[in-house]
Fold this protein.
Amino acid sequence: MSEYILEMNHITKAFSGVKALDDVNLKVKKGEIHALCGENGAGKSTLMNVLSGVYPHGTYEGDVVYKGETCSFHNLKDSEEKGIVIIHQELALSPLLSVAENVFLGNEQLKCKGVIDWTKTRQRATEMLAKVGLEHEDVNVPVNTLGVGKQQLIEIAKAMAKKVELLILDEPTASLNDEESKHLLDIMLELKSHGITCIIISHKLNEIEYVADSVTIIRDGKTIETIKKGEDEFTEDRVIKAMVGRELTNRYPLREGVEIGDTIFEVKDWNVFHPDDPNRQMLKNINIKVRAGEVVGLAGLMGAGRTEFAMSVFGHSYGQKISGKVFMHGKEVKMPTVKDAIKNKLAYVSEDRKGNGLVLIGDIKENMVLAARPQYFSNKGVINGNEEILAAQEYKDKINVKANSIEQVVGSLSGGNQQKVVLAKWMLTQPDVLILDEPTRGIDVGAKYEIYCVINDLAKAGKAVVVISSEMPEIIGTCDRVYVINEGEIAGELTKEEVTQERIMQCIMAHNRKDDGNE
Amino acid sequence: MNKKKVVNLDMKQYGMFLALVAIFVIFAVLTGGKNLSPANINNLVMQNGYVVILAVGMLLCVLTGNIDLGVGSVVAVTGSAAGIILVDYKMNMWVAILVALLIGLAVGIFAGFFIAYLGIPPFVVTLATMLMGRGLTYTMLQAQTKGPLPDDFVFIGAGFLPTMKVPFADGTIDLITIFVAIAATVLVIFAEFKSIATKKKYGFAETALWQLAVKNAVFIFIIWFFFYKLARWNGLPFVLLLMAILVAIYAFVTSKTVAGRQIYALGGNRKAAQLSGIDTKKVFFWVYVNMGVLSALAGIVLAARNASATPKAGDGFEMDAIASCYIGGAAVAGGAGTITGAVVGAFVMGILNNGMSLYGWTTDIQKIVKGAVLLGAVTFDVISKSKKK
């Protein structure tokens, strides 16, 4: 047996004549953590689907050699039997079923044929959870009562229950905050020490640098190179260069010649309570100010209350018992509905573009004009369709949405282009203030750069921009000023000169200590 | 580069239309041309009037991703209310119409309130209105038929617009119908020229000229065939006028108004619609209120056509209306579908019913065939969509 647990040789896979993978080679050593990098659409997921049998043997060219034997998987079950488990970006958990049941979903602990042994299920689930650092979790609660980070770990526990030998994680940290991500990565290292081989697909290069032993880079369906830790230069810049095929000298475009004007957006003493629990205060006395031409970041851990803040301001879309004042251009405004917020020239580009931002079965044009339509593209309720087409066309070109036409269905676009459509939708409402919630989540480096350019253009046009992001480098790279939010309160405010990842974390830690002290 | 500016007609849009024509031709062959007779064409319009009215309203419900099971019962309740007012109280026709429409409105508000503001699933709420409505009808009519209804009321379902008949071949021909056909032809051609002009003005992609010519020629042929047959019979049925007005209004509302497009956005992604400033509860509420009123209208037309109100009236109409929407290409999950599609779907069902009756198949067999056609149409739609991806 060779040192490689997995060899994928000369894999070529075409979809209706278009090659998604073109002679791709991937060699993974036993017991290592192997990262797979590439822009969106480069072919990473396709490759993993070939490996796990989602694309059955025979629909692709080339061969998959696993533990020395050539495999011909016809479905997921075949590959799982051999110990290959894939965890997809979208969680495959059934939200209302218990943790224990989810851990053994599709792999039930049976008494006899078809009858579930609940005692054994719970017992073994607890064991599995211990392996991923969740030994204190109650296995009987519905899985949706846990946070996303824990759910991700439960996915891994589920894989462990299948006696996994080769674990594939497709962007496992995409929806996790830094702390949760770190925990997950440490669990991966732990698994590695137990001899489990991992393949991780990720856009977060700092994470790859942290966990991976080697990186294979795929671009446009072709293998570019494999970089090994200890042998080659193993840095983010090197990986980025290979991914995009050019050197991105600066991941955050410079914003020059922007005049920062007067305060045009101000929120004072903002208090919000949980929508289901009127006694649970989610936001406490939040005060923020944003000036024209300024980009202000809201940093913080997941669940700190940033999205809740943005949504509660934006037409009271979140929470109850909301109190506090909002000023636009120095004048107090009331916005109890989203419609009022749009009228007052506030825009909120939501996180989770698929769930909250887009009508996926609608075309680009319909999505772009959706929010602006009542005000700008209609007269007494009757739509001016031609103006809509012109506007959509203009914005498609302006922010470079890659699509055949504005009639293309948004569901068929890549993540980056979908995000651009959501941005265009809100730019079309002609806002003075834009709140962008996780504007670059799950999109590739190139598209991120383009989104940052759009943010710069907005600032140049004198808009006030608020960026919410869980990726600290992004906040640091794009913002003029940063508010750190922790547990529903402002934990600190940092200027561009002051802000570093360490300072942000220090703010959070200091705030946590203060809180503990109070209690 | 001229190539980029030319787009092909979206054939899927016309596929259902062609299927409609094909079914019609098949039955023409099977029945030896019986279904082509002027009397039968007239029947087709009158028999399907209420299904079209219901399908138009149902499409809005389907666009939200839901259905309304209560329409058949509302048809019965409103029809029987009109019958009681006309027969037992001998009151004016307009009172009967007004009361029927108000009952429809009330049922709509009732259902809409539960669905939109209390968040009860539409399936459950309308299942309840279906049962309650049917029970109410039997109670009101004491399980008996009310009739006959007065002539002025019957006109709504069975009357004709004024005619100007002149002798023609072995019978007569109505000049007013012919005049309307000419007007419709001019309108179709005018609309096409206007659309070409707009496309030129804004520099949008244009459709190849020969394709437009074929499309319009087919349309105009169908218009003339249809109106010629009606002209040879008794002229234009009142129901046709009613249908035309409703279809025109709703086609406009769903494609050209903010309110109409909001229904599509809501059906496509409710959360995204909410965060885009759409009051989704309000949209839900009005969709069901609208359905209630249209059901009442269908109830009036049905009672008028039958010249009586019966407790069994409208039984299963909700299924015909729902099927019409799906056959017409509306997405079951919501967010996609057109009024034209729903109307064509309603006529597909109507022509099937009519053709099979003429051919001598019983209603039992007809149900089997209709079920198969519904399943086939939606399967075809779903598979062709997934292939496209």
About this structure: Chain B touches chain A through 27 residues (CB under 8 Å).
